[in-house]
Amino acid sequence: MKTAAAALTIVLLVVASLGISAPRPRQGTAPACTAIIERALADYARIKVGTTRGEVEKYFVRAAGIQFQSKTFYDFPSCPYIHVDVYYATTGPAGLSYSPADKVTRVSKLYLAYQTRD
Q1: How far separated are the first and last CA of the chain, in Å rounded?
Q2: Which three-class secondary structure state does DSSP give residue 87?
Q3: Is residue 110 part of a domain?
Q4: How many secondary structure helices (H) and strands (E) does the chain include?
Q5: Residue 67 lies in a domain
Q6: Could you tell me where the DSSP H helices lie in the chain?
Q7: Are 54 and 100 in contact (CB under 8 A)?
Q8: Domain ranges, residue 68
Q9: pLDDT tens for the 118 residues of the chain, in order
Q10: DSSP character for 59?
Q11: Nearby residues of 25 by Cβ (< 8 Å), 6 or more positions away
């Protein structure tokens, strides 16, 4: 019985000393995706209520699919899986065109989803 307990103790000590845990990224290294996400967050932070459509479209591109003048879906240019939905108060006649002067009234959070296709 003492032999079994001693063997179990040794096994537990070996397992504990191996430090079984999830691998951690090394300090000071960042995968390419981290840089893209940091840039997307920085560009997203520029979009506020009152920002113009022209300013939004400097940082995000219109997604494929059905778009509306008052609600536009955008993709981040460096990663088409990063999206944001922007709502506008339109400045021109309804339904005619997207004006760079349209003003943001509401912005969704950034989100991840597959790219929309036409």
Answers
A1: 71
A2: strand
A3: yes
A4: 3, 5
A5: yes
A6: 2-18, 32-45, 53-56
A7: yes
A8: 49-118
A9: 566 555 545 655 555 555 555 556 566 656 778 899 999 999 999 999 999 999 999 999 999 988 888 999 999 999 999 999 999 998 877 666 789 999 999 999 999 999 877 6
A10: T
A11: 31
Place of tokens 């990224």: 25
Determine contact, residues 85/63, Cβ cutoff 8 Å.
Answer: no
Number of domains in the chain: 1
Q: How far apart are CA 113 and CA 80, in angstroms?
A: 9
Q: Could you tell me the pTM of the whole model?
A: 0.71
The residues, ordered by sequence, that sit 6+ positions from 40 with a Cβ below 8 Å of its Cβ are 76, 78, 79, 82, 110
Say which residue the tokens 């022209």 belong to: 54
